[in-house]
UniProtKB/TrEMBL annotation, chains A, B:
Catalyses which reaction(s): (2R,3S)-3-isopropylmalate + NAD(+) = 4-methyl-2-oxopentanoate + CO2 + NADH
Function of the protein: Catalyzes the oxidation of 3-carboxy-2-hydroxy-4-methylpentanoate (3-isopropylmalate) to 3-carboxy-4-methyl-2-oxopentanoate. The product decarboxylates to 4-methyl-2 oxopentanoate.
GO process terms (BP): L-leucine biosynthetic process
Localization (cell): Cytoplasm
Record-stated family: Belongs to the isocitrate and isopropylmalate dehydrogenases family. LeuB type 2 subfamily.
Protein's name according to its UniProt entry: 3-isopropylmalate dehydrogenase
Residues annotated for substrate binding in this entry: R93, R103, R127, D218
Domain of life: Bacteria
Organism of provenance: Kitasatospora gansuensis
Binding site for NAD(+): G278, S279, A280, P281, D282, I283, A284, G285, Q286, G287, K288, A289, D290
Subunit structure as annotated in this protein's UniProt entry: Homodimer.
GO cellular component, one term: cytoplasm
Pathway: Amino-acid biosynthesis; L-leucine biosynthesis; L-leucine from 3-methyl-2-oxobutanoate: step 3/4
One Pfam family recorded for the sequence: Iso_dh
Amino acid sequence: SRSLRLAVVPGDGIGQEVVAEGLKVLAAALPADVKVETTEYDLGARLYHRTGETLPGAVLEELKTQDAILLGAIGDPSVPSGVLERGLLLKLRFAFDHHINLRPGKLLPGVQSPLAGDPKIDFVVVREGTEGPYVGNGGTLRTGTEHEVATEVSLNTAFGIERVVRDAYKRAAARPRKKLTLVHKNNVLVHAGHLWSRIFAEVGREFPEVSTDYLHVDAATIFFVTQPERFDVIVTDNLFGDILTDLAAAVTGGIGLAASGNINPTGAFPSMFEPVHGSAPDIAGQGKADPTATVLSVAMLLEHLGFAEEAAKVEAAVAADLLARSGTRSTSEVGDAIAARVSG
Amino acid sequence: SRSLRLAVVPGDGIGQEVVAEGLKVLAAALPADVKVETTEYDLGARLYHRTGETLPGAVLEELKTQDAILLGAIGDPSVPSGVLERGLLLKLRFAFDHHINLRPGKLLPGVQSPLAGDPKIDFVVVREGTEGPYVGNGGTLRTGTEHEVATEVSLNTAFGIERVVRDAYKRAAARPRKKLTLVHKNNVLVHAGHLWSRIFAEVGREFPEVSTDYLHVDAATIFFVTQPERFDVIVTDNLFGDILTDLAAAVTGGIGLAASGNINPTGAFPSMFEPVHGSAPDIAGQGKADPTATVLSVAMLLEHLGFAEEAAKVEAAVAADLLARSGTRSTSEVGDAIAARVSG
Ligand SMILES: CC(C)[C@H](C(=O)O)[C@@H](O)C(=O)O
Ligand SMILES: CC(C)[C@H](C(=O)O)[C@@H](O)C(=O)O
């Protein structure tokens, strides 16, 4: 019998509710001989208010020994914007070198897109997760005065870009359409942009079977709504990936369905799976949140840990559930329904 | 009789074609006693290839003496990405301190949005034009090697933010809905983001009649496609404004219709009006480009120069033309039709 050590970080707002459903489906999906040891970590607004800490060193050390992390959502209006995001969520992504931030954009049958004309959408965004404008390198001068100056530095390295670009080429090569689009803004952010473009071209020589193109981020948003079917795999930097994947979620039926993986493919540290949505404090605790994004993130977690068949089962169950949807169901009713399909 | 000194920079690709139609409509719109002295400046790829220059100092000096600038489009595949954008377009915006980059997002009757369900869209984006990640403050180390590091520094000042935020409040206060949304990413870009948020709150105290909210840029893209009617006036930084206004153009019928003004409200330097679209080299010279975005930019130019009635006339002519559209027309046919409505 195998065993799996899973860290669970429900976090804030609806995090608790959606993670519970994710675990329900995980239990239903795993083979009987796999024992899951889950450890729940109470990180987020509650811990911060109690102790002033966002990610205690001892917790970080313990997390390192886990096979994977399932995260709900981080952020609460009672905590200044950025404290939990930078001190917990981004800290985990950076500490565990989650350089592949994987976010599929797929419009599933039965799901209503806000776009007219029933578009066919099936792409995946490979977002860089450890560099760019997210490094936290910035500061202020004459803080709080009318002469304040604030900076944010985007740091980009050949090393960091090369590994995410190569990962994206591999994914593109493994898909039927074999198409990879680089998104940046190399006509304005010329230093970072040209580095991305250079490495994109260089690595591309190893993948002659992959067809490539380049779009400025502003133009990419246009195609997301007018021609989303043109995309297969997209590779982009941390900030552009953040923006594009929320837009991707919107056109594929909403953030209630958008899954993500913060992946360290080397295995040196645990990878972390989380819905793209936030903590939605306005509907927290009411059983209104759609747990599907978390369930699909659990499928990505399964896939990552080598349970490809089980991952496919969860995805199929979600697809069937979406097709059958009618009326309003509570968070746990959705989780129950998907878990039942997985077991059934 | 009054006179108007207008600089015309057709630029690259379709720039020439669309600017010609803009001038046609301008001539039709202006009162008979206003004399327009246009001076055409051949800037862009041709000049660059001929001389290596993007914006000669003498031209910059001459432009300063003009009342306004009408620009077509900048950028050509024969020139490395960024050379003309940074060396000409952004150089003009920065040299003339165009801190208000004004971009309306309005879905006009008769225009098909890619969004389902016939949304009502009528907002305006006030994009900061002289700061943020656009300042060109960055560089590379170990350039061209596998150890390259590239930086881009976003510079933000209380002074720069305050003036654009105040302008946005004024615009919001003058509109029926009186609503202003700040868009940034203050949970990640905490230094710049908190400065924006602080000043947004401070200036807001002078405009108690304006209701405000805040959205992270990623969330804003979701609402652009799921609930665009929620927006009235949006104020945001240079990069986020670039991204959001292309998306705004997409949901309001395409960049063929999206106008913009690079405005220096102090009048110290000429303001510049240009379509949001690029030079579209793939369709250049074929009479296929839609000149409507340029014509609407001419309306903004008229408004800026104090010809409010004439601006309204041009807008009405465009609205009527859009409603009457059927079949394919050439660039000049569209310009002729609108000009005829303006004169008629
Ligand atoms: C909460 C925030 C820090 C985060 C990000 O910007 O990466 C979120 O928007 C996401 O996309 O996962
Ligand atoms: C061409 C480019 C430099 C420009 C920008 O990024 O501002 C364009 O995209 C725009 O929106 O006017």
